[in-house]
Amino acid sequence: MPENRIRVAPNTVAYADEENLKLVVEFAIPGAPTDTIDLKILEDSVHLTAPARDIEYVSALALAWAVKPDKAEAIYEHGLLRIEVPFKDPMEDAVKVAIKAGRGDTPVKKIKA
Q1: Lesser CB count within 10 Å: N end or C end of the chain?
Q2: Where does the pLDDT of residue 103 fall: very low under 50, low under 70, confident under 90, or very high at 90 and above?
Q3: What are the CA-CA distances from residue 97 to residues 12, 23, 94, 104 (Å)?
Q4: What is the pLDDT of residues 47-87, one digit of tens each?
Q5: How open is the CA angle 65-71-74, to the nearest 5 degrees?
Q6: Which of 37, 41, 44 lies closest to 71 in space, CA to CA?
Q7: What are the structural domains of the chain?
Q8: Residue 113 half-sphere exposure, CB side, CA atoms within 13 Å?
Q9: In angstroms, rounded to a whole number, what is the distance separating the alpha carbons of residues 105 and 113?
Q10: How far is residue 52's CA from residue 49's CA, in Å, rounded to a whole number?
């Protein structure tokens, strides 16, 4: 990477699709060759670096809702990188907890109004 390359935050938009099943993130990164784009997605963030001519696009987004990074799809055309990644069900990794009965019945106290 040339030392005189300027780092720039790309124009970015992020939104839920119409069914609220996927997160869509769009980065405007005109001039970045597809093979130089570095896109990484975690459950809670998206990280992008993309060199283009004399600039380098750099972005890091923290996500408010967890996503499934292994299901992400990205398309780059006409200078626009579009990412679609499904939201993670918040109960997906939930563990059912067994409830044990207590020792004997707990007496119920009646309260007079």
Answers
A1: C
A2: confident
A3: 42, 31, 9, 21
A4: 999 999 899 999 999 999 999 999 999 999 999 999 999 99
A5: 95
A6: 41
A7: 6-86 (2.60.40.790)
A8: 0
A9: 24
A10: 10
Is the pLDDT at 42 greater than 80? The verdict is yes
- SS3 category, 35: helix
Tokens encoding 36: 């130089």
Please answer whether residues 49 and 56 qualify as being in contact, where contact means their C-beta atoms are separated by less than 8 angstroms.
Answer: yes
3-class secondary structure, 62:
strand
Q: What is the pLDDT of residues 24-38, one digit of tens each?
A: 999 999 999 999 999
Residue for token digits 């990412």?
83
Q: Give the tokens for residue 79.
A: 């200078």
Q: What CA–CA distances, in Å, run from 81 to 20, 74, 106? A: 20, 7, 61
Q: Which amino acid is at 19?
A: E
Residue with tokens 């670096």: 49
Q: What is the pTM of this model?
A: 0.80
Residues 49 and 59: their CA atoms lie apart, in Å, by 7
